[in-house]
Amino acid sequence: xxxxxxxxxxxxxxxxxxxxxxxxxxxxxxxxxxxxxxxxxxxxxxxxxxxxxxxxxxxxxxxxxxxxxxxxxxxxxxxxxxxxxxxxxxxxxxxxxxxxxxxxxxxxxxxxxxxxxxxxxxxxxxxxxxxxxxxxxxxxxxxxxxxxxxxxxxxxxxxxxxxxxxxxxxxxxxxxxxxxxxxxxxxxxxxxxxxxxxxxxxxxxxxxxxxxxxxxxxxxxxxxxxxxxxxxxxxxxxxxxxxxxxxxxxxxxxxxxxxxxxxxxxxxxxxxxxxxxxxxxxxxxxxxxxxxxxxxxxxxxxxxxxxxxxxxxxxxxxxxxxxxxxxxxxxxxxxxxxxxxxxxxxxxxxxxxxxxxxxxxxxxxxxxxxxxxxxxxxxxxxxxxxxxxxxxxxxxxxxxxxxxxxxxxxxxxxxxx
Length: 417
What we know:
It is a single chain. This protein is of the alpha/beta class. Helix content is 31%, strand content 26%. The chain is elongated.
């Protein structure tokens, strides 16, 4: 198994190009199924394992997927000849549930195996099922697969009991071809939700309100292929911002939307870091002392749960006590055990991590338990004394394209073996 080997102590300096958003791309690819005419050409696609997995699933359904380059795909969904998405690739990744909404919308039936993903806590799809049933579908779960079918889908009002990115996107996809108007209330507002809506509209959908509390979808008869570019990755950008502050460096992040990073920037500034925004860039640097802060994760525009683990690493290395309260996932502190092996002083009480900053972390052998925990350990390795070895890096590869190459260009001593 491959490992990342990091020798810490180098400040990150230079420029880094941020990729297209993982969380958008993993929804856009299944949504391309809705194009019954023409082809979808999607650019700025991150070259990550989750995308490769979705490519294989699309091909297993009969779609033609042509890789134009490492960051661009051409998808022809006219050749799909089955609604059964029951492969190992489907089982292994969480975002495969978007195939339910896409296949249901176009073919009025689907069989999709229950998905997996990172082990960060219970992630039910009850809100998805509630919404599909409200549109007129019949849903059953048998032998670990979701079976869904409908004579027709009819627009209706759907209020989500909890704010769910996955359910918001899945119902938005499903409702595009329903009869009449569907109103989704108490929806997620994340940038990738807006990106999926923009993609669907580019295909001919009629969606309004994405990014607000209420989304309205007026059903259309058909969707066609389009050319589209994935929104920049808010989470990858946040990770590099945090890594820059942790190493007391000076880095310009290019191909970002600064507004999407407001909650992260605000906390880094509160710590004592400097953040300067450009039109599509952000410069992050440190020229003075840093201090501990308190963070509470929340749906967008709040502080993203996906960067609280990297932030935990940063806070473990600055003076004072910090608190991180995780409100989204109940099991997202697994990285703490690994950070403690490196000398971090962290106590977890329920969903709260109490962090007392230490002067130094020490390199050792650690294990990436999930995607964002892996990013947290990479940052820990960058600031630790000596050598850090990170195993189970397949988790990291699910969301960070060529992570060692990007950090190496910024001056980090990091290799893959």
